[in-house]
Amino acid sequence: MAKQIALFNHKGGVSKTTTAFNLGWMLASKGKKVILVDCDPQCNLTGMVLGFTGIEDFAPVYEREGVTNIRDGLAPAFESRPVAMVPVICEAVDSQPNAYLLPGHIGLAEYEVTLGIAQELSGSLVTLQNLPGSLHHLFSLTASEYGADFILVDMSPSLGPINQNLMMTSDFFVVPMTPDYFSVMATDSLASVLPKWSAWAEHAKSLSILKDAVYPFPDKTPKFLGTIVQKYRLREAKTPSAAFQKWIDEIEESVKAKLIPALEENGMLLPEESYERVGLPMGKPIIQMSDFNGLIALSQKHKAPVFELTDAQLEQTGIVLERTKTSMRQFRELYSEGADRILELVEYA
């Protein structure tokens, strides 16, 4: 059965989408079949994977015959249609045969209020019993159809019911960060929010009305894999500048002192020896990397991760090209190491 990994931080601008694309590609390059699920109504992951440049590019995907996006996939549950859910027809990821995209849809946001009501009142309203388990059911159906090993869920920056559901029905989660004041604040906030979500999920799992639903609420407790810290500038010594290093240190301290104890109390951590086995002292990030700078625009243009761009796609020559290729090799090594850590953590979970 595919393992579901949520990429979540309610702070925006922390490269969740970029991380999902690059990390998913790296896992796929290591022989794992990966489905990238776009659960952000802004649909940035869909646009990145498919190389869209405008909103009009989405129409051919949505108008194609069959169930081709997350909103249509969930419609049987949320719109009380007398048909069963079916797997979403995923999009192939160019040049990566082991990766697929489950496209997003702005209309997913329309289901937020209904899901919120269902999650608050599902113990008493039979008509809503199928909603809390529907997202996980759809992902599982689709993963089975494609023989996927991993489902990577790109989430919006919010604390709404959909994200609550996505988090608490995942097997694992990663928290992307940027080294700044607001990421430190977000870490403190997560230490407060996630235990509340965990308490809700524990209650939901105990309700027979949800266990016996057509789309049962899964019995899962998501485990924290770690953080990914990105988007800082380097100084000449190829280390973070003093200003960025200050925030990196504060994030690590906040994760260690506040987030990890909160997660441990709610059973959302792996055994400490699991992190030690992969060289991750408590609080240290799975991956720490600098800003992609101009590579991110080229990555989106060519529908390729930052470490797979060709010389022709880089459109550079001479020493500039060599410096860029050196950066790309470093990004490849970091993502490869991060993917290996995740694979080992998941294997021994």
Q: Low-confidence spans: pLDDT under 50, at least 5 residues? A: none
Text of the CATH class: Alpha Beta
Distance between the termini: 14 Å
CATH superfamily: P-loop containing nucleotide triphosphate hydrolases
How many strand segments?
A: 8
**Shape category:** globular
Strand order within the widest beta sheet = 3-4-2-5-1-6-7-8
Structural class: alpha/beta
Helix content: 40-55%
Which architecture does the CATH hierarchy give at level 2?
A: 3-Layer(aba) Sandwich
The averaged pLDDT comes out at: 91
Q: Per CATH, what is the topology? A: Rossmann fold
Kindly estimate the percentage of residues that lie in beta strands according to DSSP: 5-15%
Q: Radius of gyration, rounded?
A: 20 Å
Largest sheet: 8 strands, mixed
**Order of helix and strand elements from N to C terminus:** EHEHHHEEHHEHEHHEHHEHHH
Number of domains: 1
| Total count of helical runs of at least 4 residues | 14
Protein name: AAA family ATPase
InterPro entries: AAA_dom, DNA_Partitioning_ATPase, P-loop_NTPase
Pfam families: AAA_31
Task: Tell me about this structure.
The protein is 48% helix and 11% strand. The chain has a single domain (3-348), classed as Rossmann fold, CATH 3.40.50.300. It starts with a strand and ends with a helix. The chain has 14 helices and 8 strands. The mean pLDDT is 91. An 8-stranded mixed sheet has the order 3-4-2-5-1-6-7-8, sandwiched between helices. The chain has helices at 16-29, 44-50, 59-63, 70-78, 112-121, 134-146, 161-168, 181-206, 208-211, 242-265, 272-277, 295-302, 311-314, 318-347, and strands at 3-7, 34-38, 91-93, 96-102, 150-154, 172-177, 223-229, 287-288. The protein is α/β, with parallel strands linked by helices and 349 residues long. Residues 3-192 form the AAA domain. This is AAA family ATPase.
